[in-house]
Amino acid sequence: MKKRIAAILFVLLSIYTFGANAQQPGGMPPGGQRPGGPGGAMPTIGHIYGKLLDAKTKQPVEYASITLLRGKDSSLVTGMLTKGNGDFNFENLPFGQFILRVNFMGYKTMFRKVAVTPQTMDQDLGNLRLEPNVKALAEVEVTGQRSAFTMGIDKKVFNVDRNLVSLGGTATDVLKSVPSVNVDIDGNVQVRNASPTLFVDGKPSTLTLDQIPADAIESVELITNPSARYDAEGMSGILNIVLKKNRKAGINGMINGGIGTNDKYNGGGNLNIRQGKVNFFINYNINANRNWGEGTTNRTNFPTNGDTTYSLQVSDSRSGGNFQFGRAGFDFYLDNRNTLSISQNIVAGNFRNKENLVSTFRDSDKAIYGMNDRFTDGSFEFRNYTSQIGFKHMFAQPNKEWTADFNYNRSKNGRDGGFKTQQLTPAGTPVGNPLIQTNTSSGNTTFITFQTDFVNPIGEKGKFEAGAKATVRDYTSIYDVFDQDGVSGENIFNPVLSNDYKYNEQLYAVYANYAGAIKNFGYQAGLRVEQYIYAGEIPSENQKFEPNKSQPGFFPSVYLSQKMNKDQELQLNYSRRVNRPNFFQLIPYRDYSDPLNQREGNPNLKPEYTNSIEFSYSKVMGANNFLASLYYRNTNNLISSISEPIGTDTLLNRYVNANKNAAYGAELTGKVQVIKTWDLTANVNLFQTELDVQTDKESYTNRGFAWLAKLNSETRFPFNITMQINATYQSPVIALQGGGGRGPGGPGGMGMASSSAQGKIKGFSGVDLAVKKDFLKNKTLSVSLQLSDVFNTREYNLDQTTMFFAQDYYRKRESRILKLNVSYRFGKFDSQIFKRKNTKGERENMNGGMEMGF
């Protein structure tokens, strides 16, 4: 069974490795000249066939890898797997010298020279006998492992199953280890100092990063400058979280559990059953934890009429709760070329948060003239359901396919809580009765996505792609606030602080791409057209925002590449992208949840459009590779947040469109195998950001140079011990403040971050460490010990200075956490799985990866 899996994977790897230089039957031979002289016609009528047998048992060897290579440079011409009776054949071959390579795990590799000439156009190679190599098989089974990080010019893939430091955590912990990605303490994600579009399994989702367990993630894909095939949303590209979907044959799975300091627990497992035409999988995880947080806001106010005043807020919070993640589904192989996939995700959680916020106010002489202590106690629960149906049809022509996917997501959430605010004397003694407020909220989201994609190879190196996508999202939220009467204790509805709203978003898109190559020069051009429709209302105020049907957006993309000697490549690409304001940024509602830092939406916000150019160089050196990129982004109408004073001590945070924004920089990524047992991946991003904003009160300019560095180290020691160290450093940088993820009374979310024209975030660093020990004969039992933020340095510091105020903002969450995790893998493999004749469809589905078709 393992031999057959290896053969299938080997053919796929060969096609991907040599595909760029592949010579399809009927194509040009090496040197670019056809037989008979320049311009002559080249016959493609050669036929080679034979049978593969086991040298000892004389039995046919099925699903072995047979590849035909050019005799001149060993580049790939074509390949196949042997049939059930060991037969193989290659047709429509051009004249020339070839090498027949036979490869199958557990056997010695066979090479045989073959010549196709006018005299040998039809050749029977007879019975080829493979010699077993049991020693080699054992060595491969013990040492084979997938690379933790693979990268290309168009996509970087981070394989989470090799990331020890995030075991038992969430998607937020995973992304902290991904090169090129920066995650702050609130889970806001940035790539090259801008917000990417976040997807789960290639689709939009209402899940937040903290609602996806790390143990359910297969890989993270980062596409910094996507083609027209992908959604145009997102300034810095697409970040796709691929969930686990085991495709191993037979019955296999894993169970795991862990415990961490300060009451943190996790557990779960997965099971996969593959037999005949059905592949069934199920995954379940539960995470429970407690966390503490603290923060201060130290502000100096410069009123235009009056003396300078000072305020200080000190926060102390505690939170805790749990969430559960379940996923089940199956792939049904209808026949060799048609596959139906169905899956269902269910996520649920309950959390509680308590916070003490003490505010102190001082006059120009810094004498205290007021204090209050506000205690917040709230609970939050959510439920999320995602149903997915996918269909794939493979045509007889290689690499020609049609896919259709439907995604239905339904989520609901609820909050209950309240504020208790007690006025204090300068000495800290309570004065009068406290002000008590209670609040309840509920929200419901329906998110539907349908997409279809068609891929058609044209000629030897051409490819045409086309597709369509429709997305519809409905959101409803109700947030009610009640004031408690100090005498009767009755709760009285507060219409000023309460709100309710609904909105509907629709996005329709079509795209077309064409790719081709002329010798070592490759090109791809595409165009995506998107139509966006938005409508909203505030029922309690009888306000309706009529459907806003903007003009269709056109988003072109162009890719140019040049392959050079010694596995080097240059690439230049361009794409146009968009970032549309979400409802929370548009709604003209003021959020008073923090009286000194109020927030308000802006219904006049415009979408921001980005033109992105990237020039890259890559070099592959065996197990090592290097990628360097220069990039430039120019954004029109960048959505930015600003803070302006209202009253003596209060700031109003609102959103505006910037007048000018540009960002440019260089990113260097290298993966090096220092020695056979030590791998290093280093990533450095150096960038300059320039931002100008004009308001009716003041002009703001914020610009500066910054850099981000990450280093991932993996060392394998004797006795099956592995150690990982992940280190990150972020220099001071123009502030990115979360703007889209949280609404009045609504839940946190992936959201998007908006640039701030005021202030900078101070630099910070962090180091994570993990050690794993594998036990038992086949390393099926693993025990790992992790320590996150070893030096306890992860925190958030923001400095802001304007003509109206100067503010230092500090926040810290629990980040140094020690965890112990145990996992056990089990499995029984069934060779009958592979008796089914499903060559092309089987090879495609054995790839084991998630193919995104947006």
UniProtKB/TrEMBL annotation:
Q: What region holds the TonB-dependent receptor plug domain?
A: 170-238
Cellular compartments annotated:
Cell outer membrane
Asked if Membrane is a keyword of the record, the answer is: yes
Q: Which UniProt keywords apply?
A: Cell outer membrane, Membrane, Receptor, Signal
Gene3D superfamilies in the cross-refs: Carboxypeptidase-like, regulatory domain, TonB-dependent receptor, beta-barrel domain, TonB-dependent receptor, plug domain
Describe the location of the Outer membrane protein beta-barrel domain by residue ranges.
393-738, 754-824
* Signal sequence segment: 1-22
**Name of the protein in question:** TonB-dependent receptor family protein
**Source organism per UniProt:** Chitinophaga horti
* Phylogenetic placement of the source organism: Bacteria, Pseudomonadati, Bacteroidota, Chitinophagia, Chitinophagales
